[in-house]
Amino acid sequence: MPTPEPRIPTTAGTGPMSYAIFQLARAHRASAAAMLREMDLHLGQELLLMQLLDRDGQTQSELLDSVGLDHSTVSKSLRRMQDAGLLIREPAAHDRRVLVVHLTDKGRAMREPLAAMWRTLEETSARDLSAQQAESFVRTAYAIADALNSRTLPREESE
User: Fold this and answer.
1) How far is CA 48 from CA 55, 64, 110, in A?
2) Rounded-to-integer distance, Cα 107 and Cα 1, Å
């Protein structure tokens, strides 16, 4: 049975690709959130864990740069993760105002469950795609992200 065409609101009709991206992001985020809840994690925490699993002992600023989230979101996530026993934050030796984040044994033990969760999410997401379609999608998604991230903001009309 063919998949029904989604009904795009008329105001989004001039941007069907943007509406599809929104729908995709929402569905992907909901699936990821459900899987993370089973691991007692919140969305975004897995990205911080992955960064720390690759390089433990990063500063909060380095983590901010690597995940592209805002300061308050990262700070709140790290506080929750510390309360859950996944990591510790301690002042840096060179500057006591800078916090360095280290994984605990419990945090390091998340490597395999996170990899399995990410693998399942990938398999579910690409279930109906050929390998070539999946590769093409990844290239296209990064091209769109690059275009959005490098767009120039319009000048003020008063200038």
Assistant:
1) 11, 9, 12
2) 44
**pTM of this structure:** 0.83
Contacts of 71 (CB under 8 A, 6+ apart): 64
- What pLDDT, in 10s, does the model give residues 24-68? 999 999 999 999 999 999 999 999 999 999 999 999 999 999 998
Q: Which of 104, 53, 55 is nearest to 82 (CA)?
A: 104
- Cβ pair 67, 51 in contact under 8 A: yes
d(CA 55, CA 48): 11
Assigned token pair, 112 = 């395999």
Per-residue pLDDT tens for 122-155?
A: 999 999 999 999 999 999 999 999 999 887 656 5
Q: State how beta strands 58-59 and 99-103 pair.
A: antiparallel
